[in-house]
User: Which sequence fits this backbone?
């Protein structure tokens, strides 16, 4: 037992120490990100919004003090002159204190193989010197890597950073995958097995949408269930049947798989199944499915028993959990009761107890009554 505890502690310490610097320091209150951009027709704005969403950064829209003409010919004429003359134009952006930010993303459409003058003028701001400035651009033509490097050297006086330039059509179609990959790369965020920053973030968003009052313990539980399945709950088939029969008495509707309406209003309508964690190796199947006769009790218990994991790899789980935590911290995902739950989780892990109950709030609000079944048994 003692050896196990020691082993877990050692793995935990090694993982924490091995995390890249940027991961370590980008905790909730440390790193502040500003996403400043100029956009004429909305494409660069879309990219800026994705970056802000994924980094938890503040958005800043840059505008020229004298607006560009609506007429396209006049716009092109002025934009061309500005680019050719390398003009430092007057810009309007809310009174932003750039010195308060550690990382500043600057976004611009490519105009005549250059940055649009409003973004270029913002990049020239003296206060940016010595800060980490990361460019992003959108363009009509692909393959702008060289242009990007040239422009970076031209405007930003800091060490070159790997920016991202995306073709306008791709920005409109992309579901954040390219932006996420690039951000993970430049901010030194790694994947963990099949878990990626993107699927963890997507999963957290879905959880928060289904269960707005979710706390860190509930988040832990969902990912834990996805890793281990129902193993720790099952003593024997007959015991499981007995517990389920007892619980069925109080089940009056499905509790998992809660859906929101398209317009965003919350409705308590549940499908009765939902995947655990980000990978859905296991699925929560509501007892309601048995109560309403959709699944036969014997079949339910059989599948539940078959879902018990044979090998329990606690070290692997600690590694996954630390990755999930790093995503939550890096992207400042707001989760209720974070600090308290984290202390509780850490103390349980340190004492070799990996399972976790749902939070009281979760039980009170959502009355969960489900069991975990391996997803491939449900096909
Ligand atoms: C005045 C002007 C000049 C442009 N020059 C270029 C160019 O030199 N190379 C290019 O690939 N795209 C060029 N484009 C296309 C834009 O870079 C592209 O459509 C961009 O995604 C628009 O971003 P926005 O919607 O944020 O304004 C130009 C567009 C305009 C309006």
Assistant:
């Amino acid at each position: 037992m003692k050896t196990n505890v020691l082993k877990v502690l050692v793995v935990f310490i090694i993982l924490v120490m091995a995390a890249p610097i940027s991961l370590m320091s980008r905790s909730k209150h440390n790193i502040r990100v500003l996403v400043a951009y100029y956009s004429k027709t909305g494409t660069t704005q879309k990219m800026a919004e994705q970056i802000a969403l994924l980094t938890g950064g503040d958005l800043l829209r840059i505008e020229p003090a004298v607006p560009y003409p609506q007429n396209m010919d006049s716009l092109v004429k002025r934009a061309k002159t500005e680019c050719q003359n390398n003009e430092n134009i007057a810009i309007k952006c809310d009174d932003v204190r750039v010195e308060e930010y550690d990382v500043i993303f600057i976004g611009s459409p490519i105009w005549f193989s250059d940055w649009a003058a409003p973004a270029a003028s913002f990049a020239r701001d003296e206060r940016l010197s010595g800060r980490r400035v990361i460019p992003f651009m959108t363009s009509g033509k692909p393959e702008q890597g060289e242009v990007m490097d040239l422009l970076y050297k031209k405007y930003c006086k800091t060490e070159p950073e790997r920016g991202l330039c995306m073709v306008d059509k791709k920005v409109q179609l992309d579901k954040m995958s390219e932006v996420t990959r690039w951000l993970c790369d430049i901010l030194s965020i790694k994947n963990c097995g099949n878990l990626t920053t993107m699927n963890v973030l997507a999963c957290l968003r879905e959880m928060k949408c289904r269960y707005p009052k979710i706390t860190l313990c509930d988040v832990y539980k969902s990912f834990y269930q996805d890793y281990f399945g129902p193993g720790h709950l099952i003593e024997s088939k007959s015991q499981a049947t007995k517990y389920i029969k007892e619980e069925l008495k109080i089940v009056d509707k499905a509790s998992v798989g809660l859906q929101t309406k398209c317009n965003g209003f919350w409705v308590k309508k549940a499908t009765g199944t939902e995947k655990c964690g980000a990978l859905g190796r296991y699925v929560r199947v509501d007892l309601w499915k048995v109560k309403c006769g959709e699944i036969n009790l014997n079949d339910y218990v059989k599948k539940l028993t078959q879902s018990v994991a044979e090998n329990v790899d606690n070290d692997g789980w600690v590694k996954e959990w630390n990755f999930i935590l790093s995503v939550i911290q890096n992207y400042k995902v707001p989760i209720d009761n974070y600090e308290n739950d984290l202390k509780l989780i850490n103390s349980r892990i340190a004492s070799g107890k990996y399972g976790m109950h749902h939070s009281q709030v979760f039980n009170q609000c959502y009355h969960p009554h489900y069991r975990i079944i391996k997803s491939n048994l449900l096909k």
Observations:
- The chain has two domains: 27-186, 197-377.
- Residues 39-45, 76, 79, 109-113, 138-141, 168 surround flavin mononucleotide (CB under 6 Å).
- Residues 221 and 356 are 6 Å apart (CA to CA).
- The radius of gyration is 25 Å.
